[in-house]
Amino acid sequence: MKAQKYIMATRFQGLPNLSNFKLVEEDLPEIQNGEILCEALFLSVDSYMRPYMDRYPVGSTMIGGQVAKVLHSKNPKYPVGRLIVAYFGWRTHTIINPNDEGDKSFMSTITLLPDLGSLPPSIGLGAIGMPGNTAYFGFLDLCQPKAGEVVVVSGAAGAVGSLVGQIAKIKGCFVIGYAGTDDKVKWLVDELGFDRAYNYKKVDIKDSLKEAAPNGVDCYFDNVGAELSAAVRSHMNEFGRISVCGSISAYNDTQPRLVPCAEPSFVFKQLKMEGFLVHRWLDRFPEGTKQMLKWIQDGQIKIKETFTDGFKQMPQAFIDMLQGANTGKAVVKV
Amino acid sequence: MKAQKYIMATRFQGLPNLSNFKLVEEDLPEIQNGEILCEALFLSVDSYMRPYMDRYPVGSTMIGGQVAKVLHSKNPKYPVGRLIVAYFGWRTHTIINPNDEGDKSFMSTITLLPDLGSLPPSIGLGAIGMPGNTAYFGFLDLCQPKAGEVVVVSGAAGAVGSLVGQIAKIKGCFVIGYAGTDDKVKWLVDELGFDRAYNYKKVDIKDSLKEAAPNGVDCYFDNVGAELSAAVRSHMNEFGRISVCGSISAYNDTQPRLVPCAEPSFVFKQLKMEGFLVHRWLDRFPEGTKQMLKWIQDGQIKIKETFTDGFKQMPQAFIDMLQGANTGKAVVKV
After folding, report:
1. Chain A contact for B206 (CB, 8 A cutoff)
2. Domain B131-278 has CATH 3.40.50.720
3. Residue A106 confidence (pLDDT)
4. Is A282 on the interface with B (CB under 8 A)?
5. B264 membership: H or E segment, kind and range
């Protein structure tokens, strides 16, 4: 059996380009007792991969999650045909012993995909996977939103942001989203029920906040960072909470961007800002996944996926996602 | 009885100067039932006055705390000769009815100074007053320091910072202070027991952090903001906590200073940063005051005051304090 995988052939400088990636073939051995051979059906491209790969040596396999099918099995818990979610990286085929806990990190978890009924298995990479838990815990635990409060979400049409806004609506908040195209803005309001949405490329952020949140912002779920976030921070109410999930605007910067110093607002508005990595809630993932699935099945959360066809398109799908080409979750279908 | 007071005659632009202030005399009436006439003995000059006064109309009396003596009394709880701490502003004499709760804000509280033994009553404006509670709650509640952790304090030789560093030592932390003169740095290490201290005007902040905290910083108590704080933030450990007490470096800025955008560190280090105003703990002030007094009496916390003589010197003392002329608490003695 031959597996294909993508490695980071050269270090990213700014926005990644196709020459940074190299497709490699490798021979897989026969599986041993306890092992399974998995075939990727859907692979995830996510913005976190950009800064994370900076920590890996050149030549490393690109990291990431996939929904895979068990092709061969010598492990009774993982029978042939079973679908799993795992962090094998950008690989078509993988041999693993699920009983081996690896480094016990999030990236070594292997999850059996629950029964999704008529829902597509690819949502194991999105709303009921890592992005779903990111939205659920990162928003609810760190922002502690109350009904009637005003919530701003940046990167609102992305995999996480689109879920955060809908969770905020379920919790009775007034939700304002920022996204990067008019189509996304329309989708947020017309389909997802955001109260207001703006194309951040076309509006003055401060003016839009005055219009949409004349009494200020209570919670800010930040996927973007830099100038947009500085503007939102300056418009927050006393005891406002900021959950920092990502800073996609900065990931491709070669020099840190300069923004107005924020400390005076933090003091006089008594703001709280916390950044997080979702694995801090790893023990509670089943709770998040279960709730997200229920909300989807009840029609309270709508999901959208932007598919790219073909494993060979992984690099391009990744580059496109970093530039905001996706609405909802970006997924590569093998 | 004639009272003297200072008003803000013109709006501050940048660093205040003497022409911003005007000394005004006013006639005080006879006191009525329930009222007391108080005479200021010590008045406080604090950095918070600079940004707070921006919210008051021109012509307002300068705000601030004082230790005052009851000169005349028609209120049995406040007999003649009793010392109190109150927020009458920059006034020599004040008539007040302590039974009137005013706007119930912090600024309308009147506190009977406890028995201090041989300690000077002026510490009611410092270590056992608002700055003491600021240090006690702002550090312990928001930073949640643990023994063995590394704590950085900026504005470390000031009224609040000098207490925070000593509290951190009591809690078993390794304490690094930044101050603005070599004498202050020497005082922090030789007298207060800071583990390391640096003159931020003379060192490269990042180099000094690498030297003093090779394994990173766990807690940062920030009085200063801007570039210094950006450097400390970039040197923090995972789950680091930042308590933002003030941003004195920015108070006289007419335009917000630009600093490197901090979101990537917040995410990947899972940092938490919270700003505060001390009145959020108003209900717990007795706890803070009692503990601070005990630590002082036990010799675990040392206090230092920088005195300026004469009510007429209030503006100059305030301007000097904003430029860091004081070591420990800046107090004007009438």
Report:
1. no
2. yes
3. 75
4. no
5. helix B263-269
Whether A54 and chain B come into contact, CB under 8 Å, resolves to no
* Residue pLDDT, tens place only, A51-83: 999 999 999 999 999 999 999 999 999 999 999
Note whether B268 contacts A256, CB cutoff 8 Å. Answer: no
Cα–Cα distance for residue pair B323/B268, rounded to 1 Å: 36
Q: Label residue A251 by pLDDT band (50, 70, 90).
A: confident
State in words which class domain B2-126+304-333 has. alpha beta
Identify the CA nearest to B20 among candidates B30, B33, B11, B29. B11
Interchain CB distance below 8 Å, B266 and A274: yes
- Which B-chain residues 286-305 have CB contacts (< 8 A) with chain A? none
Q: What is the DSSP string of B300-332?
A: SS---EEEEE-GGGHHHHHHHHHTT--SBEEEE
Distance from C-alpha of A266 to C-alpha of B242, rounded to nearest angstrom: 11
Range A195-206 average pLDDT: 97
Contact call for residues B23 and B6 (beta carbons, < 8 A): yes
Give which of A144, A263, A269, A276 to mutate to test B binding, by max B Cβ within 10 Å: A263
Q: Say whether residue A254 is in contact with chain B using an 8 A CB cutoff.
A: no
Among B265, B267, B275, beta carbon nearest to A245: B267
Contacts of A303 (CB under 8 A, 6+ apart): A123, A126, A127, A296, A328, A329
Question: What ipTM score was computed for the predicted complex, to two decimals?
Answer: 0.95
Q: How open is the CA angle A47-A50-A55, to the nearest 5 degrees?
A: 135
Structure tokens at B250: 């920015």
Q: How would DSSP label each residue in B54-81? A: TTSPTTPBPP--EEEEEEEES-TTS-TT
Q: Report domain A130-278's class.
A: alpha beta
Answer for the pair B285, B310: CB distance below 8 angstroms, yes or no: no
Q: Which residue of A has its CA nearest to B272?
A: A274
Residues A2-40: pLDDT tens digits? 999 999 999 999 999 999 999 999 999 999 999 999 999
- At residue B70, the pLDDT reads 98
Among B residues 85-144, those touching chain A with beta carbons less than 8 Å apart: none
- Asked whether the beta carbons of residue B267 and residue A246 sit closer than 8 angstroms, the reply is yes
A19 HSE (CA, 13 A, CB side):
2
Q: What chain B residue is nearest to A245 in terms of C-alpha separation?
A: B267
Residue type, B66: Q
Q: Which of B246, B256, B263 sits opposite A229 (nearest CB)?
A: B263
Q: Where are the domains of chain A?
A: 2-125+304-333, 130-278
A191 DSSP β-pair partners: none
Q: Spell out the CATH class of A2-125+304-333.
A: alpha beta
Query: Is the separation of the CB atoms in A141 and A281 below 8 Å?
Result: yes
Strand partners for B165 = none
